[in-house]
């Protein structure tokens, strides 16, 4: 049961990162759109799916609360301010998305809100991951870092890194969903974004070595871990080829593979901890009666249903957005 | 009162949850109302019901979206501001709230898509089923919320672990707790009554403006007619909730009653100003014997006063005392409007009494006010406990939050909510004003309930 829920949580987080990652990425790239038509096409490329993507954030939070209450309470309270700001950024961004079409004079304002909200939300998610990797100051199951205990230079760097990563996913999605000038732009910036992401990873890696992070020791203990970065490198290689040949869907898939590899790397190097290196999966887990209660309804029926629903939505909205079709 | 992080967290939670409850209170009832209209439309084939359905579907979509958006915040606040609560009760509250968000998504979101897109693509009977599924989804959502809240009011089916956390030992006892079966109908009926009065008020409004006469009259008559049945049922369930409070939460009951000392027989305080410092009421008007009669259905029962509880275990008095009276006042007003209006409508005299149309029009906030004040009574009356008798609110909060942190988050919440819900309210107002014959095609552009503002209406930015 616990294994099932651990995987379910991992799946929900990975799906969230990849799916909402690309639509946040489109938001990050939004200011670079060459024209109003391009902007509309960018929005059309994500409008049927972005809210469904954010559902996975709620699924992840629900599973954390119900199955790993200790992690839910420790992590959410430790990241108090960033989380509140992230939620508000996500909400503002979602609303701006709709309001820009209702507005005539204030459209620029909502555009700034959409791009700004996307950047802030992505940055904070990256900071949160960075803070986890570096290790949150926790003593006896209690966070002791104060209001800004998470805000280390390393964590902030990870925030920038995730913005770049999401932008990469977003550009990949745009090559798949759009055509003409906006697709050209996406193909043009994909290699640059890839190099920026790789540069970030290199800096973060060296920095982690310098900080002598405990996560790094796991790599010496378990050399087979290296398989995940290798998958990532292969994906980078494919991505560059795909861009050169102007393949439409492959860049996004490669981006998703890079994220999956990074996610797996982190997950395995944290294991068996959920909050490294203080709370393990077993310590965090709710009692068996809670796991079972969640399993027989949510786990067995509703989680698969949600997955199917997600697939159906993507199937229904497959293909290019129509350049000349209006948003509504 | 000293401005502490705890107090600010309480204000923040009260603010966000009160904002949230407005929308479910509306949509749970509207979903049922839509089922009712669709069933009437199928049964009679009268196009009037179809026009009403399309009109209210648009409003439902916006209100539903705003409810989802404001609800997401709550899913995180348990962890951010109430980390001790979520650590200690997570094994019970987590799965309950998990079921809420999972069922909400599975039923509401997917079938809502059918309501918006599917009119021309599915058979009428399937469309009817989709309506029912959306209504079932909203109902189940409120069911899980009420199970969770009822557990906090009257914890059952748990054991305590050495680290202070609660372990569920009997899920059956938790989800079928007798408390749930009075409080859940009370909430459900509150939503139905709220929506009924919104429907009636919209009808009265358009009648006063002299537009959409047949639709407006149908809304007014149906809204008042439903309310005429629902309000008495609601008062009965309110009484049952009162019985539960009397038996299980005597301190809350005493605070609601404004009863400071044990009395036999007890009188009923109609109105007063509770003076907490001196443990007495000022300007009190009370009726002898009625207190015993209401509490125990006897004229000579002994009823407990607040001073029988240690000061540390007493709830604040002023808020539950007045909130309860406002709620009951709204209920009585709604009962009068519903019954008198139904009497007028039976004699077909509604349109002749313009004062009554005005009164019905201004009745639209009554249901919302009653719902909110009812929740204030229940939640403030539960203090100083978060989990009644087991976990104090002061022990439930995140221990290391500071005043500046919560002050900042409260300011951010207030600003963002103000913007979003101002626009949302304007939007709903425009939809209501444009009336039931507004263009049908407008509904067809939407994709999903979490995008409230994408659904209906004009987009001036686009031609």
- The coarse overall form of chain B would be globular
The domain count of chain A comes to 1
Radius of gyration of chain B: 23 Å
Beta-strand content estimate of chain A = under 5%
What is the tally of helical segments of chain B? 14
Describe this protein with a few key phrases.
heterodimer; A: about 325 residues; mainly alpha; Formate dehydrogenase/DMSO reductase fold; B: mainly alpha; two-stranded antiparallel sheet; 6 strands; globular; disordered C terminus
Describe how the helices and strands are arranged.
The complex is a heterodimer of chains A (328) and B (463).
Chain A: H1 2-29, H2 36-46, H3 50-67, H4 69-78, H5 80-102, H6 107-134, E1 138-139, E2 142-143, H7 153-177, H8 180-211, H9 214-221, H10 227-244, H11 250-270, E3 273-275, E4 279-280, H12 281-284, H13 288-316
Antiparallel strand pairs in A: 1-2, 3-4
Chain B: H1 5-44, H2 47-81, H3 83-117, H4 124-153, E1 158-160, E2 166-168, H5 171-175, H6 180-209, H7 213-248, H8 250-257, E3 268-275, E4 280-287, H9 290-296, H10 318-346, H11 354-361, H12 364-382, E5 385-387, E6 391-392, H13 393-396, H14 403-434
Antiparallel strand pairs in B: 1-2, 3-4, 5-6
